[in-house]
Amino acid sequence: MPGKPSPRAEFIKSAEFVKQHNTMLDSGVFNRGEEVATAEFVRAVVTLGAGKDLDGPGAQQGAAASFYMLVGAMHYQEVFRRLAEPYQTPKAEQKIESLKAN
Fold first, then answer.
1. Which terminal residue of the chain, N or C, has fewer Cβ atoms less than 10 Å from its own Cβ?
2. Which parts of the chain register pLDDT below 70?
3. C-alpha separations of 5 from 15, 83, 90, 101 in Å
């Protein structure tokens, strides 16, 4: 919807939310919990493929699906951790000097 702020922008509007979010990220309990939850999630995804014939039908699709589940979990963690940070302005593309036409 044009003109509507993103959920992240709405979150950042509250100084109290930002403060509490950053406090939580600094918490040893939170960080250990996130670490253990990540390990448990990886274990669960790996268990899905345990005992499967790697040459069987659908094995490659299953491996790809498992990979993307893990990528999604890592992406979620990154988004969550940066939730209270303002959006970064994309940097201008830098040209590689050696690829310029002569």
1. C
2. 1-2, 95-96, 98-102
3. 16, 14, 18, 42
